[in-house]
UniProtKB/TrEMBL annotation:
NCBIfam families: birA_ligase (TIGR00121)
CDD domains xrefs: BPL
Gene Ontology cellular component list: cytoplasm
Name of the featured protein: Bifunctional ligase/repressor BirA
A single GO BP: regulation of DNA-templated transcription
Keywords: ATP-binding, Biotin, DNA-binding, Ligase, Nucleotide-binding, Repressor, Transcription, Transcription regulation
DNA-binding region(s), chain positions: 22-41
Residues that bind biotin: Q116, K189
Amino acid sequence: MRTTKQFVLLKLLQQKGNWVSGDELAEELKLSRESIWKAINTLKRKGNQIESRKNLGYKYVGNESLDEDTINFYSGMKFEDKIFVFDEVTSTQELAKQYLSSHEVKQPFIFVANNQTEGHGRRGRNFYSPSDTGLYFSLILPNPSHDILKIGLLTTSTAVAVVKVLEQFYKDKNFQLKWVNDIYLGTYKVGGIITEAALDLESSSAGNFIMGIGLNLSTKDFPADLSEKAQGINPEFKIDRNQLLAEMAKEVINNFANYRQPDLIDEYRKRSLLFGKNVTLKLGTKAVNGKVEGISDDGSLILKAKSGELQTFKSGEVVKVDW
């Protein structure tokens, strides 16, 4: 059941940028003007920017903070009671795993944080996740078939889904993908994706997948060891993170149901920044050098050794690129 605060926010968001009469709100929601006023103040305390003016009423301007109800509104009310927003956590991936350990999940759930103290990507690498300037979230995606999916294709198609949404919000940016899960602008990393299977121990099958996405949106300052490798997408431009998250979550969920479509791997190839470049691929303690010849239909990386031999790798991490 929705609260008064949620009802008022929904009405203001539906008229975003326009004045909404307090009397009309009270009459439509069958509430007192005092209840409306209290709800407005509660919304303001949660970071909602709402202007008040005598004889005009209230006008919703925006919210720079992450907010469950606002995200749900922008999603088309698809995620009601399925979004958890936190100010600071160790990692949204860990939160999702903890939730799965004590809940049966039959629909997608979203875990969002304004700041991660131990954000990480593949192979345990740290992901810098400062407050207010990024978007860090994890999705629990139920897998009713319990099949172990083609993880390579799932990750590449999710990368395409994320970039497609970013291209809508940052129309002047040329996003590219570094195999298999990193999002780049030029030679700088701006985001990453991690895909993990949550195994059902009784059936030894994948009951759920946890998809983690981290993006540095307007981050300006990075630790010394990252300043030459990472940057924010646009430090001078702040977008509505609630709207971005809603659109991205919808796209990722839709992609999960259709991730094997051939056109998605083609879209990934178009955005790959590695074609024709010499790289070093790390496989555990072993390193392989070669020239990137392409991406196979299952999402594997194709390298050409100095001998001319072609090799295909389903896993590994590209640790060096000769730009």
